[in-house]
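User: Please predict the structure of the protein below. I'd like the answer in structure-token form so I can feed it into my own downstream comparison script.

Assistant: Understood. Taking the following sequence of 375 residues as input:
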Amino acid sequence: MFQRDVFYIAGYDPRSYRYYYALLKENLKKQNRISHLGVEITPCKYFHKQEIFCQINSQESQTNYHFLTWDKVVRKYWSKSLWNFVCDFVYSVRVYIFSGAIKIFLQQTKMQLLAGFYPILYFLSAYLLCVGVAYGLFVWAREWNFYGATFGVLVCFWVGTKAILWGGKKLAVFWLSNIYVFCAKYAKGEINEIPQVVLEFSRRILNALRKNQKNLEYEAILCAHSVGTILAISVIARVVEEAKAENLGLENFKILMLGECIPLASFQKECEAFKRELEIAGNAGLLWWDFTSKIDGACFAMLDFYKASGLDVKSPPCYLSARFYKLFTPKTYKKIRYNWYLVHFLYLYATEINGEYNYFRFISGAETLEEKIKE
């Protein structure tokens, strides 16, 4: 029986593994009916109370699907209050505009530049509208009562702030803002918990590789989505260095990245340590596939992030498009293509039409990952 370990790193999301297990279970069942995968998924299991995984089984294969959780770190840095959002706004302007990083984004990917300005434009335009309404209210009401007009202005700002916060959450404005700030801080080494997280994730992968070193029918896949791809670079670098030190083969270690946003870290002015990790990962000779989509505004679609970051490596990823337009009916595709938040997660969803991109086929069955992906 073919054995597989999939190590999944979610994006910058405060939701726990339970959300991603439910997402996996629901969509695996849907894809099973469409693609006839012949697989079943078990409830989550716990090892040492911290290592969480489930199994995806078929007659010819068994996949241990590990959730590499870091939602506690995300919740610690996740902005919630208006003051947090104001601080994020100021920080974003400083590190993306005043630092000169905006020039790199402008040269490499205009789509991401627009997405990056989305929170800034929303925040500015919303408060300009609020100021305009408050001023008009004051001018109209002061003829009757100056103090009443002043009170009305304060109420207007209070209601406006509540509306801005509500709208920002509904339109995923603050979700994007959180991502941009976190990635910049990650590049600068300002997230103190990351070294311990990387150590723990790499330890789990290395243990699996050691256990199956002589197993010819085995593969270990590190799968990362969204901001999780940035964290994955640090994990890959650690695994490569540890494996080299103990002469551990990495022939069965493979990388699958979905909707990556690595340049949010590698384009920063102060990211020397992260670039060193990028170089280690890119020179390790690993089998590595990077799936993105042009309709995904939260990723860097089909961008060679090594060249764009000024790095020359021996074994960069194979950059592929998920081609969502071929995986859904025209009616469904028309509904989802402008839903940026949903599109960014489509990599983890069941498709309506069998196509070359099939996440659930990638992580199950007796064939190796390279046998399933057409480059």
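That's the full token string. The mean pLDDT is 89.
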